[in-house]
């Protein structure tokens, strides 16, 4: 008979399998992290946790067919693809883009109503209208700028000017003989042309239209002589011989047409006019939703398909953080306000 020597309790296999007294239970060290995650979820607004549970509307405060409208549709398709819900573009033009902008300012801050806006309603309108139904610096949560592009100083082909100098010579010889179209009083195209007129002493007649497309159409038919227009939108008419571009108003030459000189190169450093469009949400929209939208938009503008689409419109994709966008809005609000007061521009 074999005798078994007693095994000390602390060396017995069963004892080794049991946790030591005061030793943490397996997985116990993960509890603080799990608790923090649960706490974060519990403090996140319910709307942010379940968003998006339905379709989203992107308001474009401009008439259909313009560059802003096409940019809105391009980026809305990217949002729909990433979020898995319908994203619809709704055009609410009028009153210098303030009608659609006001609509979004009044919308629920739940991530289901967004705005694609430029400087017209955010930086210009506060200085053009005595009363606005929104405050552009307080009533919106900036998400990201997505597009930037220069405007093109364009003339009807019947205007015998091949350069900016030619155009100014004609304008000086015949005060108020030349008319210029804009996409609306107080728009970028308006402010840019007024800056050129003021800095050169020429006297022009302003003819505002409700949107860029009808303004370009009027110039093409000869109803008006010239305007600062979206480069991409006038290119087909330029190729058809109906319009002529003299220069672009960006800080650098346009990627789409690098052969065109800038207004700065033409001797007019103060004449800089660029279209910029960015996404915003109503103020109070949960930061989690803003962050998710920003991530989708930032990834989308890096795609070659978006770059190609924007290039046809005369724009370049761009991106910034919500904080950078907010700082830019404040800076533009102050800068354009000074310009509008100096030029004595008023909404018509």
3D architecture notes:
The chain has 348 residues and is α/β, with parallel strands linked by helices. It has 2 domains: 54-149 and 274-343, 3-Layer(aba) Sandwich (D-Maltodextrin-Binding Protein, domain 2), CATH 3.40.190.150; 150-248, D-Maltodextrin-Binding Protein, domain 2, CATH 3.40.190. The chain is 42% helix and 18% strand. The chain is built from 13 helices and 10 strands. The protein has helices at residues 13-17, 31-43, 46-50, 67-83, 98-106, 119-128, 164-173, 188-200, 212-221, 231-239, 287-300, 304-313, 322-343, and strands at residues 56-60, 87-91, 113-117, 140-156, 179-182, 205-208, 226-230, 243-248, 274-282, 316-317. The model is unreliable at 1-31 and 33-43 (pLDDT under 50).
Kindly give the count of domains. 2
User: What fraction strand?
Assistant: 15-25%
Task: Note the gap between the termini.
Answer: 114 Å
Q: Can you give the mean pLDDT?
A: 88
Helix-strand category: alpha/beta
Indicate the CATH architecture of the largest domain.
3-Layer(aba) Sandwich
- Broad CATH class of the largest domain: Alpha Beta
Chart the SSEs and their pairings.
Blueprint (H helix, E strand, L loop, with lengths): L12 H5 L13 H13 L2 H5 L5 E5 L6 H17 L3 E5 L6 H9 L6 E5 L1 H10 L11 E17 L7 H10 L5 E4 L5 H13 L4 E4 L3 H10 L4 E5 H9 L3 E6 L25 E9 L4 H14 L3 H10 L2 E2 L4 H22 L5
Parallel strand pairs: 1-2, 1-3, 5-6
Antiparallel strand pairs: 3-9, 4-7, 4-8, 4-9, 4-10
